[in-house]
Design brief:
mainly alpha, 0% strand, 95% helix, rod-shaped
């Protein structure tokens, strides 16, 4: 029982980590895109 609940918690933590990583990745891509356009305009 304890192991099963532990696995669920671990899986949930991994899911949250993946979601936050994707979210940060999207924000990073957006900022990189802006920087790229700023450089191109110059």
């Amino acid at each position: 029982m304890l192991i099963r609940s532990k696995q669920k918690k671990g899986r949930r933590d991994v899911l949250y980590a993946g979601a936050s990583f994707l979210y940060l990745g999207v924000l990073d891509l957006n900022s990189m895109y802006r920087c790229f356009h700023a450089v191109v305009r110059k």
